[in-house]
Write a structure and sequence with these properties.
Distance between the termini: 16 Å
Low-confidence stretches: 9-21
Bound molecules: ligand IFG
Number of domains: 2
Strand order of the largest sheet: 8-9-10-11-12-13-14-15
Mean pLDDT: 95
Radius of gyration: 24 Å
CATH class of the largest domain: Alpha Beta
CATH superfamily of the largest domain: Glycosidases
CATH topology of the largest domain: TIM Barrel
Number of helices: 16
CATH architecture of the largest domain: Alpha-Beta Barrel
Shape: globular
Helix content: 25-40%
Number of strands: 15
């Protein structure tokens, strides 16, 4: 503790005050994503003590905060049933307008988070978390004091869709690893997790009416190692963990390409009635569902039906990318029918932007993954777009040529590159109002462990999170790199194996 105190005093000199002074609370200026407005109250500090309790008008909204504080402070941090005079209150009144808006007020005597929904309160709590001492994220009890800087934050997101994607098909990742990733992205107000559940190398979700998809199609991975798959209970555990952190799961079944695992599992799905072998390489574009067979659409309907039934979120992703082995006319026929099937199961379609080559439903969302700022078909499609340009947001791209993990087909992406674009103006000719938000895909051809995921996602994911949340008027690399540098002590406490980019001064 002394070392941390000395470090903090070195970083935030208290005007020569004797070393006995309590550690200075973290400044409002370190919050990521940067809030719409953050007004510190000079000299005002709230101290969390053994007497601090939490009251929440949205059941559950205070639970994570209570658990986090109990674990690191050792204090009881009870959830109480009426607003405490000097505790932490999460209220569903008095917030600025907006589904996810919040107001955070820290005074010497209380902390109040105001929102219009559980989501708003959750967002305010994530900002509060970043104002707690770094040690607050410790898994074990740490000495205090537990000081929070006083002031007011009034905030709301620029975009409704702020996503991360995890490819669990090329390499399989356990429920625990996915839960840990959800915990990490939620701290930066990411509110959607897109799970890439199927591909050539693996099928990762049980479908009762087609059991071999998981048991056989999920039995291996890139490189030939053991694969794996989620039972429906596993998937529902992931959905629940995410929901408690204001994260909605978007499942993807990639079709008609990227389907070797399904085709290998059932010979009858193949046009020639012959099942190809399981595939453990990293090529793309060689597989296609048999768009001419009626069985294919029965398959799609049953797969989508079972997945939709355990997916509370509004979106279902049908993939649609790199269908090089599907004739364009057949691709359009298939995608148009697949969209109708998804809609019939009550979900809104998301597809990689290739789906604009079919006839996207008015509600279908195109996910842009191009490497340039020009794609007139997408810009003129008249559909909502999620911005995931591969040359800016693909977290599996190497940081630089020396990065041991990742790929380079879309170029290398250092932190400044990941931050250096405007989702609202990136695609030439796309009206800014058509942008639904952003997403940072993490493809796993070259990634095998949780540490691999963390190394590629941090520090670039917080950059994408800030592009999705903060007003573009706040966009400033010098300011952002300073805020980012102040995140690293928390990542060390959380055990996040981040890449210490030389572009940032890490605290
Ligand atoms: N493109 C493929 C992914 C993955 C990626 C790796 C999309 C939409 C290259 N399709 O990105 O399956 O292989 O960077």
């Amino acid at each position: 503790m002394k070392a941390i105190l000395a470090l903090l005093l070195a970083l935030y000199p208290l005007g020569g005050v004797a070393e006995a002074a309590a550690a200075a609370p973290l400044p409002f200026s370190s919050i990521v994503p940067v809030p719409v407005t953050a007004t510190p109250a000079a000299g005002v500090t709230y101290e969390i003590t053994a007497a601090t309790t939490i009251y929440s008008e949205a059941p559950g909204a205070g639970d994570q905060l209570a658990q986090l504080l109990r674990r690191s402070t050792g204090y009881p941090v009870a959830i109480v049933t009426s607003p405490p005079a000097s505790g932490i209150s999460l209220l569903l009144s008095g917030a600025p307008a907006g589904a996810e808006a919040y107001q955070l007020d820290v005074t010497a005597s209380s902390i109040v988070v105001r929102g219009n929904s559980a989501a708003g309160l959750f967002n305010g709590v994530q900002t509060l978390r970043q104002l707690l001492p770094y040690a607050a994220d410790s898994q074990t009890v740490q000495p205090g004091p537990w000081l929070v800087a006083g002031g007011r934050v009034v905030d709301q997101p620029r975009y409704a869709y702020r996503g991360a994607m995890l490819d669990v098909a090329r390499h399989f990742f356990s429920v625990d690893t996915v839960r840990a990733y959800i915990d990490q992205i939620a701290l930066y107000k990411i509110n959607y997790l897109h799970l890439h559940l199927s591909d050539d190398q693996g099928w990762r979700i049980v479908v009762d009416s087609w059991p071999r998809l998981a048991t056989y199609g999920g039995s291996t991975a890139v490189g030939g190692g053991p694969g794996g798959y989620y039972t429906k209970a596993d998937y529902q555990a992931i959905v629940a963990h995410a929901a408690a952190r204001n994260v909605t799961i978007v499942p993807e079944i990639d079709m008609p390409g990227h389907t070797n695992a399904a085709l290998a599992s059932y010979a009858e799905l193949n046009c020639n009635g012959v099942a190809p072998p399981l595939y453990t390489g990293t090529d793309v574009g060689f597989s296609s569902l048999c768009t001419a067979k009626e069985l294919t659409y029965t398959f799609v309907d049953q797969v989508i039906g079972e997945l939709a039934a355990i997916t509370p979120g509004p979106y279902l992703h049908i993939g649609g990318d790199e269908a090089a082995s599907t004739l364009p006319a057949d691709y359009a026929t298939f995608v148009n029918r697949a969209q109708q099937i998804v809609a019939a199961h009550g979900k809104t379609v998301v597809g990689w932007h290739d789906v604009v080559n079919a006839t996207p439903l008015p509600s279908t969302v195109a996910q842009y993954w191009g490497t340039t700022q020009r794609n007139t078909a997408v810009a003129n499609a008249g559909r909502k777009v999620i911005m995931s340009p591969a040359s800016k947001a693909y977290l599996d791209m190497k940081y630089n040529r020396r990065t041991p993990l990742g790929q380079t087909w879309a170029g290398t992406i250092e932190v400044k590159d990941a931050y250096g674009w405007d989702p609202g103006a990136y695609l030439t000719g796309l009206p800014s109002g058509q942008v639904l938000g952003v997403e940072a895909p993490l493809w796993t051809e070259t990634l095998r462990t949780a540490n691999d995921l963390e190394y590629m996602a941090f520090p670039r994911l917080p950059a994408i999170a800030e592009l999705g949340w903060s007003p573009y008027a706040t966009h400033n690399w010098t300011a952002f790199r300073g805020r980012l540098g102040a995140q690293s002590p928390r990542w060390r406490v959380m055990g996040v194996d981040f890449y210490p980019s030389t572009q940032v001064t890490w605290l």
